[in-house]
Amino acid sequence: MRIGVPKETWPGELRTALVPANAKKLIRAGFEIVAESGLGQGAGFSDHDYTEAGVKLQSNHQSVVADADLVLRVRKPSASEVGWLRRGAIQVSFLDPFNERALVDALAEQGVTAISMEMIPRSTRAQKMDALSSQDNLAGYVTVIQAAYHSIKAFPMMMTPSGTIRPCRVFVIGVGVAGLQAIATAKRLGARVEAFDTRPVTAEQVRSLGAKFVEIDLGEVGQTEQGYAKALTEEQIALQKEGQKKVIAESDVVITTAKLFGRPAPRIVSRDMLEAMQPGSVVVDMAVETGGNVEGAVLDQVTEIGGVKVIGQGNLPSQVSRNASEMYSNNLVNLIEEFWDVDNKQMVLDPEDEIIRLAVITRAGEIVNETIRNLNT
Ligand code: NAD
């Protein structure tokens, strides 16, 4: 089976879907790998690293895609790239299937088996393939590094002969994978950390990291079967805003990571809350790509609102492209190994398998994923 790995074409994307160590592993298992020259450039891997691993390099982007049985990439393919895919080929990447109906339709029409990495379930068995987690974990780390860079205050407490510096106060809103890593990173830097999430189960996780959970009574909230947050009602959002107002005003740094799976992110930090913060404070909106948690946050920009810097940097995992590529590539290889039939040298994607049922979006000319098929119909 031939695996094709084209260079990412998404503007500013520095990650790569396959790192040399994993290429070597797959080649040893019997795969042929053809990749585009310069594949690992953004993640610090040279062409030599790939050729040494046994990868065949080509400079023609189209043929890397068109001649492959299995295409690996980080970002969704463009419409023209879909047109190059072989009928029956498997294409694995993030796909954003909730917002990309035309792309999903095109993949189905092309007869491609498209696997969407966002749709890998959050189960124990699928953990090793969970790219949302591997990338969000690093994104959470980056939010704090960015906040620290833009902050006019140091994070740790320092007792010096010149005086005492009090620890920076950080408030993390949204305690999923990214939020937990943001808390841990801010704690490592010595900040005093508080956090809030609508899912009550997160309170204990926050405390176990040595941070304080901000209690806000929203009434009945709960979570979905997959563990995702349910959308709040208008009244609950108002209660949350009221409950977090004082903490935001007293924080030096606010990091928001609140998301709703398959839906726009909730808008939970309003302009008046920003204006109540001390000038020089920093707010990082990690949800800016899916609608934004913070009023006034602009994708890929640092805006200033009432003297507060609002950071809307997108694609945070790409800031640590080396580790993000290694983790993502591990997720892909684990996926391939899970469904690779060693004896018959083919991928076996059983529609009855839970991971396949949820992560395969199109197959043999159809949209086979029930959730995506039934969207807006
Ligand atoms: P996510 O990225 O969908 O959302 C981030 C966080 O935002 C969530 O914790 C969510 O509860 C929170 N949120 C939503 N609306 C909010 C609001 N108005 N205010 C404050 N917070 C709000 O979440 P995720 O990191 O992808 O995690 C989703 C779920 O999957 C969690 O339950 C997590 O524990 C679970 N998970 C399980 C596994 C596994 O078992 N293998 C792996 C990873 C994640």
Written description of the protein model:
The transhydrogenation between NADH and NADP is coupled to respiration and ATP hydrolysis and functions as a proton pump across the membrane. GO terms for molecular function: NADP binding; oxidoreductase activity; proton-translocating NAD(P)+ transhydrogenase activity. It is an enzyme of class 7 (translocase). The chain has 377 residues and is an alpha/beta fold. It has two domains: 162 residues, NAD(P)-binding Rossmann-like Domain (Rossmann fold, 3-Layer(aba) Sandwich), CATH 3.40.50.720; 179 residues, 3-Layer(aba) Sandwich (Rossmann fold), CATH 3.40.50.720. Helices cover 34% and strands 18% of the residues. The protein has 13 helices and 19 strands. The protein has an eight-stranded mixed β-sheet, sandwiched between helices. Strand 18 and strand 19 form a beta hairpin. The longest helix has 20 residues. The two termini are 37 Å apart. The relative contact order is 0.14. The mean pLDDT is 96. Nicotinamide-adenine-dinucleotide binds next to helix 6 and helix 7.
